[in-house]
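2024-03-11 09:14:02 INFO worker-7 job=invfold-0412 stage=load source=structure_tokens
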């Protein structure tokens, strides 16, 4: 099970799921620090609506996966992750584009992982492999609290 493909999937899910969870857990606080309270928390409310609406990009992600494959689409996920990270560092005016790019990121993140594990490890082991990957990612996420304190 310790193959290059498994190592890729493990690093991919640990890094990106942790980033995703961090943003979900701190977005409102980050928006508040940028002045969202002065706007009656409109940005926080928009974020709460936009993120679940990310499911609307599922057909596009599916098209990318079937047209270009998991690895190329994983690169797109990294690029979109970089985009939302940059937008998150900007003033509050960039929060809506950040929310949209974050929503796309989350949908693509989990779609790529499911597609990659299914194609690479087969339908008989996808449940076990995915369970191991998500369990490892959950353990890795315990680093969030100390990293948040340090930041």
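2024-03-11 09:14:09 INFO worker-7 stage=emit residues=151
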């Amino acid at each position: 099970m310790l193959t290059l493909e498994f190592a890729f999937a493990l690093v991919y899910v640990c890094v990106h799921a942790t980033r995703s969870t961090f943003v979900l857990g701190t977005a409102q606080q980050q928006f508040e620090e940028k002045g969202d309270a002065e706007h009656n928390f409109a940005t926080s409310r928009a974020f709460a609506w936009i993120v679940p609406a990310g499911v609307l990009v599922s057909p596009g992600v599916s098209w990318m996966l079937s047209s270009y494959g998991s690895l190329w689409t994983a690169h797109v996920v990294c690029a979109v992750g970089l985009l939302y990270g940059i937008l998150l560092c900007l003033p509050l005016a960039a929060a809506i584009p950040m929310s949209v790019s974050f929503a796309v990121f989350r949908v693509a993140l989990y779609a790529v992982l499911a597609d990659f594990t299914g194609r690479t490890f087969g339908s008989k082991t996808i449940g076990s492999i995915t369970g191991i990957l998500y369990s490892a990612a959950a353990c890795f996420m315990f680093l969030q609290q100390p990293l948040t304190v340090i930041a």
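2024-03-11 09:14:09 INFO worker-7 stage=report msg="The chain has a mean pLDDT of 92."
2024-03-11 09:14:10 INFO worker-7 job finished
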